[in-house]
Write a structure and sequence with these properties.
The chain is α+β, with helices and mostly antiparallel strands. The chain has a single domain, classed as Alpha-Beta Complex (Sufe protein. Chain: A), CATH 3.90.1010.10. It has five helices and three strands. A hairpin with a 2-residue loop joins strand 2 and strand 3.
C-alpha cells in the first residue's frame, strides 16, 4: 500500500471513525481498554448473533493511530463469523509483531504494517482490536 494512501486512510478514519458512539443496549457485550502510558481509552460494545458479528461500537478518547485502527478493524470485522474475525485479528497481531501474515486477508489494516518502526505505537495500533478479541472470546 502506497504511503500517501496509508496516511489518508488513517486520517480519514481518525476524523470520521466508523461506528463511533455507544448504544448501551443490554444485548451487547462490553469492554473497556486503555493504554496506561497515554490517553488511549476505549469503551467497546460487541453484538454477536448465531456466531456472526452483527455490530461493534466504540467511544472514548485516543490518538489517531488507536482511533483509526479501531475504525478500520470494525469495518473489517462486522459480518464475519467469530472464527473468521479471530483469524483476521491473529494475522493483524502477526503483522504488528513483524511475523509472517496474510496481507490479502487484512486489506486496509495493512496501513499499519510499518508500525513496528515506532515500537511505542504498537499498543496504540492494537488497543481496539485486542478489546474486540477479548469480547469475542467472552461470547458464548
Amino acid at each position: 500500500m502506497e504511503s500517501n494512501f496509508k496516511r489518508t486512510l488513517i486520517l480519514e478514519n481518525y476524523e470520521k471513525p466508523f461506528h463511533r458512539g455507544l448504544l448501551k443496549d443490554s444485548t451487547y457485550l462490553r469492554e473497556n481498554k486503555n493504554n496506561s502510558s497515554c490517553i488511549d481509552n476505549f469503551d467497546i460494545e460487541l453484538k454477536i448473533e448465531d456466531g456472526i458479528i452483527k455490530d461493534i461500537r466504540f467511544d472514548g478518547e485516543a490518538c489517531a493511530i488507536a482511533t483509526s485502527s479501531m475504525s478500520i478493524s470494525i469495518s473489517k470485522l462486522i459480518g464475519k463469523s467469530k472464527e473468521e474475525a479471530l483469524n483476521i485479528i491473529e494475522n493483524y497481531e502477526k503483522m504488528i509483531n513483524e511475523e509472517e501474515y496474510d496481507e490479502d486477508l487484512l486489506e486496509e489494516l495493512t496501513a499499519y504494517e510499518d508500525i513496528y518502526k515506532q515500537p511505542a505505537r504498537k499498543k496504540c495500533a492494537t488497543l481496539g482490536i485486542l478489546g474486540i478479541k477479548d469480547l469475542i472470546n467472552k461470547s458464548k
